[in-house]
UniProtKB/TrEMBL annotation:
NCBIfam families: B_ant_repeat (TIGR01451). It holds the Pfam family DUF11. It comes from Leptothoe kymatousa TAU-MAC 1615. InterPro entries: Chlamydia_OmcB (IPR051172), DUF11_rpt (IPR047589), Ig-like_fold (IPR013783), OmcB-like_DUF11 (IPR001434). This is DUF11 domain-containing protein. Residues 265-362 form the DUF11 domain.
Length: 511
């Protein structure tokens, strides 16, 4: 039986065999055009082995193919590259620089600048100075990116140069666990923000013609590193096959990344009035504007309504380019989430309109409303957001009294249930301090009350220095009452009770 007549392995296995026989490594292919690192030698020798067993006929075959010689045409080193948010080249790289730092003692902020071994071009030793690699032929740090290099950069690490940061104590530049922060500085007049990427070497091995650097890259700025999305690229492998450079024990570092504008979507919130009273209806308008050069999808808006404002679900409407779009509202407490499957085109603005009803529970004063928008770019799925956009209106009392009343008592809780029963006497002259600084003293029956309090979440604390011989009574039914403080929610015009149970710490005298 000929080798060509043998049954082909499954597709997945065939792909594994194909990958094992490949001699070209794609480096930096994170959403941008990959760069190819191949052997410096002019010929590569490749040999394949095979084995086959037919269990039905108990036949075993095996062998080795003839040696194949592959001609190469020099070396293209792995390079990092700065790209736009859509994965394309930036229109202008003038003023961009890439700088390599060590982290400070926290591991998150910039420490000392990394001293790199000086090199020259072409890559030959010249008076003891090792040869470098384009575009950073002198191995400069910082390195200034140019348009001629299409935003590419590279750095070379030295296997003998020690690091200075406390987080890199005792390590040289290529040691495992060495940490760096790669910084991309845009021009002063650029709309792009500075980028900071933390690099941690997870492995570095090999020698001449066989060197590997593995590192984990994490974005400290929260912006995705590559066009594939995500703020972390784990276990990135940079393999270098470069006899001349590796003979000098210099390792090449490359990381492709994208630069995204900070403002890609905007949200503006307005209302049809500046003041309202309980019982009024307020119409809000959310304007969502696309500031990118690509359509935005998966639009969601989180809108935090003021206390006492109630959404009218049937009022929710979406408008895009004078066309009605479907908006789905979902309420969770005072937070309303609006979502739509309709994309916002380039330079488009989607308006979300809805109405709320002001209930008597609304807090008087400023009705502050906060709204934030989230979306995804349609080209690479990047998550973008804006907000919160804040709208404030004045909530007038109207004809409804917004004063609330607080009542309470301090008593001897004999059965530890937190409630006063017959035979459980009140404690006079007990002091309760309220969160606004008011000092309240109980009457002869242990009762106290405060009229016309401002509504909202209020708290009170029992002062045990006014109760010598007493301690807090344990509550067998409510754990939150096993504290000398109490918290209540006062609604406008409402009444709330705040009780404190105590127990004597002295022994009663026996007759």
């Amino acid at each position: 039986m000929k080798l060509s007549q043998l049954p082909k392995p499954p597709l997945r296995t065939w792909r594994k065999w194909t990958r094992r026989m490949t001699t070209i490594l794609l480096v930096g292919g994170m959403g941008q055009a990959p760069f190819v690192a191949i052997a410096q030698a002019s010929e590569i020798y490749n040999r394949a082995s095979y084995s086959y067993r037919d269990s039905d006929r108990n036949i075993s075959l095996g062998g080795t193919s003839a040696e194949t010689i592959i001609e190469t045409e020099g070396l293209i080193d792995p390079l990092g590259q700065i790209l736009g948010c859509n994965g394309d080249l930036l229109p202008n790289y003038d003023g961009f620089s890439v700088v390599l730092y060590e982290p400070d003692a926290t591991g998150l902020d910039l420490g000392p600048l990394v001293p790199l071994t000086t090199t020259e071009f072409p890559d030959i030793e010249n008076n003891g100075i090792p040869g470098g690699k384009l575009p950073n032929a002198e191995n400069s740090n910082p390195f200034f990116v140019t348009n001629a290099d299409a935003g590419q950069y590279n750095f070379l690490f030295d296997t003998t140069t020690p690091l200075a940061s406390p987080v890199n104590a005792g390590l040289v530049q290529t040691d495992r666990d060495a940490q760096y922060i790669l910084v991309v500085n845009p021009p002063a007049d650029s709309d792009f923000p500075q980028r900071r990427i933390k690099l941690e070497l997870t492995d570095s091995t090999g020698g001449v013609n066989n060197s590997v650097i593995r590192y984990t890259a994490t974005a400290l700025d929260g912006i995705p590193i590559s066009t594939s999305g995500g703020s972390q690229v784990s276990e990135t492998v940079v393999e270098i096959f470069d006899a001349e450079t590796q003979g000098l024990n210099l390792f090449s570092l490359a990381l492709g990344m994208v630069m995204c504008e900070p403002n890609q979507i905007s949200i503006t919130k307005t209302a049809d009035r500046a003041a309202a009273q309980p019982g009024d209806t307020i119409v809000y308008r959310l304007a969502l504007r696309n500031l990118t050069d690509i359509a935005l999808e998966s639009i969601t808006v989180d809108d935090l309504l003021p206390q006492g404002f109630q959404l009218i679900p049937e009022s929710v409407t979406g408008v895009l380019n004078d066309q009605t779009v479907e908006i789905t509202p979902e309420a969770s407490g005072s937070t309303i989430t609006f979502s739509t499957t309709t994309a916002i085109p380039v330079d488009g603005t989607m308006n979300v309109l809805y109405a709320t009803r002001v209930t008597p529970d609304a807090l008087r004063g400023d009705g502050e409303n906060l709204a934030s928008v989230n979306a995804e770019r349609s080209d690479n799925g990047f998550f973008i957001q804006d907000g919160p956009s804040i709208h404030r209106l004045v909530v007038d009392p109207g004809i409804v009294n917004d004063c609330a009343t607080l009542i309470g008592r301090v008593f001897v809780d004999k059965n530890f249930d937190g409630e006063q029963q017959p035979g459980e006497a009140g404690i006079p002259n007990a002091v309760v301090f309220l969160d606004d600084g008011n000092r309240i003293v109980t009457d002869a029956d242990g009762l106290f009350s405060v009229a016309c309090m401002l509504p909202g979440v209020r708290s009170g604390v029992l002062d045990f220095s006014s109760l010598p011989g007493y301690a807090l009574a344990p509550n067998l039914y409510f754990n939150e009452r096993n504290s000398q403080s109490r918290m209540v929610n006062l609604a406008p015009g409402g009444m709330v009770r705040m009780n404190f149970g105590v127990t004597p710490t002295f022994q009663e005298e026996t007759p």
